[in-house]
Amino acid sequence: MAGSLDMDALVPAWFACRLLGIPKQTFRSWVSSGKLTPVADADDGHPLYRYGDVLEVERATRQSRKSSRNPHRGAEPNHP
Q: Where is the region Disordered (predicted)?
C-alpha cells in the first residue's frame, strides 16, 4: 500500500506512521530534528507532510542503521 501513493501526496503524521509501520515517536523525532518539515496544514490545523519526503527520511534512517550496525563493511580484512 505504501508504494501506491503519489510521492507529492500530502499526508498527516498518523497516516504516514500507519503506512510505514513506524512509531509516532520516531516520526516526532524526525520533525524535531529537522529531518521532516510540514508543507501545509489540514483544515483541522494539523500539519501535513509530503509523502515522498517521509519516504526519503525513512529510507535514509534505515540505511544509517544498517551502516552503523556494520561499521567495517567494505573494509579490507586484517590478515597478518
A: 59-80
Whether residue 74 lies inside any domain: the answer is no
Residue 75 in domain: no
Query: Which letter, b or e, does each residue of 50-70 get, where b requires 16 or more Cβ atoms within 10 Å of its Cβ?
Result: bbebbbebbeeeeeeeeeeee
pLDDT above 50: residue 5: yes
pTM of the model: 0.76
| Domains identified in the chain, total number | 1
Helix axes 51-69, 13-20, angle to 10 degrees: 50
Residue 80 resides in a domain: no
